[in-house]
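Hello,

Our lab assistant flagged a job as stuck in the queue for most of the afternoon. It eventually completed. Since we weren't sure the result was trustworthy after the delay, we are filing this so someone can double-check. Below is the sequence as submitted and the structure that was eventually returned. Let us know if re-running is recommended.
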Amino acid sequence: MATRAQLADPLRARTGGYRKRLARRLGLRLRDLDGVSWEALEHYCRCKAAQSVLDPRDDPERAMRAANATHRAWVQLERRLREVGLDRGRRDGVADLADHLRANYGNGSVGR
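-- returned structure --
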């Protein structure tokens, strides 16, 4: 059931969900963020929430502007996390998967 605040701002609940999922995926603790990093994260999550609400068939131009704004907010967030050292030197997900498969299943002989 939606709270009064969620009804007043339909993007608030979506924004919070995006913030929590993104922080978990990036390995961030929200309390470690400074004010500028927090605002960059919040801006990205609000853009993403607004983009998810829009239907591109109703207004394709507005949907494209929302997608562009979301991309710019993502670039700004990445840059800020790199500046403050919170990117934690993350590697490519494909390399992580390859390491996991090699460690657990060997060098590539399948079922032999």
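-- support follow-up --
The delay was a queue issue, not a problem with the job. The result is valid. The longest helix spans residues 60-84. The mean pLDDT is 83.
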